[in-house]
Specification:
alpha/beta; ten-stranded mixed beta sheet; three-stranded mixed beta sheet; 12 helices; 34% helix
Length: 369
């Protein structure tokens, strides 16, 4: 029904436009912007970058945004620059180089320790992809964390594209120590009935702190009653589309589960968007970054499908190890220490933004050809 438009895809993917750093009342890239009444991250992103994908803004301001759907008037946001750097700050490349130089003298322990075996999947750009520098930002984050906070651990990284095999076979059998990366529920929350998948992730695996928090949006037709939903309870009775095999614990935690709703589970994000367009589903729900790509793939705009501005969830990607691994908790502690140091130094954000820049440049090059 819809023609793939690579130029539109590239335009949507390239969300960072360079303008000299300054504090602005206008919504401009590479500036600091003060939230006004009625602003949403999506409207700010559209004005500043020409795309509704506001995940890069959320990344840059994660320490001050707790609820993406409820922005406090007067809050000052940093709108990233073209190279991913923050206004009035070092570029991502400069910060990464400085941290690498600072940690270049880390000493290797005299005690032999076997290399940590890490597995992820490819073709998951910009998260994990063999064609990106360092294997994508998840791989860059884990490899850097193993050389921060006093760590100096050897490791190997393998790409296995059968994602279900990571949790079902490879980690339980000890073929690998760590898998990158998985959405893990709040396992302390037993106020709802866990699905089998939630039970599995909470009882069979240990996980690091959140490595990357993604905003999950809810998408409807513009004239749908569900476009006006202000609470999760307003989705009762809806047909909700989330792809087969994807996490659903964020829905379950908020009371969005059968029989209150009817789940529609095709194989891809574009299938979910198409289900909404054709009336097979009322609501599609997945990451805002993926939603922007799917809409661009299909040639859709906000006249066709809109994101609900009042309801969303935030899900955290984590590195996981199986609880039968005798060194699993030691590895988790090492990674947590490295990741926490990287967040404090700014290296965490620099690596993510640098990979996003590279990924977007590849999309632009592909569009030009």
């Amino acid at each position: 029904m819809f023609k793939f438009d690579l130029k539109k895809l590239a335009a949507a993917a390239v969300t960072l436009t360079a303008i000299s750093a300054h504090t602005a009342s206008a919504q401009e890239a590479c500036s600091n912007y003060t939230i006004e009444d009625g602003d949403t991250l999506a409207t700010i992103s559209i004005t500043a970058y020409g795309t509704s994908n506001y995940q890069p803004i959320f990344n840059a301001n994660r320490n001050i945004i707790s609820d993406p759907s409820n922005l406090e008037t007067g809050l000052v946001l940093a709108l990233p620059c073209e190279d991913g750097s923050l206004p009035n700050g070092q570029s991502a490349q400069e910060l990464i180089a400085a941290e690498e130089e600072r940690n270049a003298t880390n000493k290797v322990s005299n005690v032999y320790e076997p290399p940590m075996k890490i597995v992820t999947g490819s073709n998951y750009a910009p998260f994990a992809d063999e064609d990106l520098k360092g294997g994508g930002f998840l791989v860059r984050l884990v490899s850097t964390a193993l050389n921060r906070a006093g760590n100096n651990r050897d490791y190997s990284v393998s790409f296995v594209n059968d994602w279900s095999a990571h949790l079902d076979t490879l980690l339980p059998l000890g073929a690998f120590d760590i898998s990158l990366a998985w959405y893990i529920p709040d396992c302390s929350n037993r106020t709802y009935e866990w699905s089998a998948e939630t039970e599995k992730r909470c009882t069979q695996f240990d996980a690091t702190v959140s490595v990357y928090d993604t905003v999950v949006g809810f998408y409807t037709l513009p004239d749908s009653d569900y476009a006006k939903a202000r609470t999760f309870q307003d989705f009762d009775g809806a047909r909700v589309c989330r792809m087969s095999g994807w996490f659903t614990h964020d829905l379950e935690e908020n009371g969005v589960f059968e029989p209150k709703v009817t789940m529609v589970q095709p194989t891809s994000a574009t299938d979910c968007m198409d289900a909404v367009l054709t009336g097979q589903a009322d609501v599609a729900s997945f990451e805002v970054q993926l939603a922007a790509d799917a809409m661009s793939d299909m040639g859709l705009t906000s006249k066709d499908i809109v994101e609900n501005p009042f309801v969303n969830t935030v899900a955290g990607l984590r590195f996981v190890t199986h609880r039968t691994n005798p060194f699993g908790r030691q590895y988790i502690a090492m990674l947590n220490a490295g990741l926490n140091e990287m967040r404090e130094s700014g290296e965490w954000y620099a690596i993510i933004s640098d990979t996003l820049r590279e990924h977007n440049e590849k999309l632009m090059a592909a569009a030009a050809n």
